[in-house]
Amino acid sequence: MTNRNMTEQELQQYLKERFPKEDASCDWKEMKNLKNSFANDPHKDVVSYLSGISNMEGGHLIIGVKDGSLEIVGTDLSKVGFDKTSVIHKMLEQCTNLPEEDLSVEEFITTDTNKVVWIINIPKHYPRRPVIAHKKMYQRRNDSLIVMTHEREEAILKEDLGHYDWSAEVVESATIDDLDATAIQAALDGYCERYPKRAEEAKSWTTKQFLDKAKITKNGKITRTALLLLGKEESVHYLNHPAEIVWKLQTGEERAANIFYPPFLLSAVELRGTIRNYQIKIFPSNALLPTPVMKYDQRSLLEGLHNCILHQDYTRGERIIVTESADSVMFQNAGTFYEGRYEDYIDGKRTPTQYRNPFLQNAMVNLNMIDSQGFGIHDMFENQRSRFLPMPDYDQSTDRHVIMVMPGQVINEEYSTTLMENTSLDLTTVFLLDRVQRNKPLSKAARARLRELNLIEGRHPHIIISRKIAQITRKEAEYTALKGFDDGFCKDLILKSLREHTRLNRSQINELLLKRLPDILNERQKNNHIDYLLKYLRREGKIHVGPNKYWELGPAQQNSSSEKQS
Fold this sequence. Notes:
Helices cover 38% and strands 16% of the residues. With 566 residues, the chain is α+β, with helices and mostly antiparallel strands. The strands form six sheets. The chain has a five-stranded mixed beta sheet. The protein has a five-stranded mixed beta sheet with strand order 11-10-14-15-16, covered by helices on one side. A four-stranded antiparallel beta sheet has the order 4-7-8-9. α11 runs antiparallel to α13.
């Protein structure tokens, strides 16, 4: 913190010249009791303003002055006990994603009145990483602090990252001796598989020539990519990053864990072998005998691991997490989808135009670890379909992590196998119907697509498979239960029962209708729907509430009933 010797009047004049008005980048705050104003009052405290200003272009927060006049009132620091190090640490602790670089505090103590003023210099947020305080994202709108709008969040998440590539940086102090000889040989084998016409020539290259031509090193200099893919475990310290893949097994009471280090070219394969993979039996509807399939497709497991390595946002300093449970494997890496959404790549038609780590991507392509045409996700989905298993999903992903779950167990055997054997449906449609059977949310566009193909019925969010698909999958009874009887049938049933029994109380009407309403509705929703049916019939004059809150036929219905009896 920098001390400045100024009187109260001189400091006020200095602040007016330097910060003439409040706007998106500047705010004046009194906050006399800084201890209570630092991180205790969402939308009003220091950390909320740090989030709001950083999520614009950065700026300044002046503490200890009156809002609107810049009159010096001072702030009480004696009870706080912050020094330069602790206050910065407190800010970073309370504000997720707040950049540490250029975050600073200037302290002014007036020489005549001994009042303390702070100027907090707030850096702009990292590209595509909004700053979070109190589990919310804030922004400035003119001179006001508001919860971040969807438009502002989208603008941040789509910011241009420029040409910075963490994976391409040269590590000057590292040498070829820091690379693993076995990994280098495996890399050469992968290169020769990828480019068979160059195989004979590649085998005659020196190690330095090969690494440069495979675009793993730069003019013989070791890059971060080289250390990630081929580096010795003891050379990880050069990266200043926890280059680790954590594997955890959680199946009931059984637990196990292990950590895998570079060279990731080898350790990814080793980790794949750790995942418990065995045969399960599927009973396709067109076969007399069960079909044995492996619980997980080996290529898909490796694809999931390689995707984590490739797409990890290494600037966040996080580890890759692989969690194995009894019926699935979950892959987690830092960052968000870099271009588009995962649904865009299911049909295999979209090709990515850019990558978060382009240097690493190029090397992994050359070593035959990945493809560059966007078929990876498509192949994983196709492999699941061909093995009659549920589709992979990314539903647990957040604004900080991409999380992919690979199912290894059938959810509804008859539905899944019969549906996936119907080859007239394309892969994207199968994916969407798979979400219907698992009660997963569907976008408006996805619902429109399925409705156009007559594959679903019902109103959002109570979507069910259509009669057409129910017949394909031999789920007619389930379809009828999910759909329930229509309103006309239920209204007629109420009137018929009242004609037969003269009057019914609400519990009797519930007993009459609840089992006939759609199973997809919960108990509260069913009761609300019965309320609607009764109100409709009452407005039509067909029923009314009689003594003791019993429902009875309206006069017209009673007359009609008497005429029929006579």
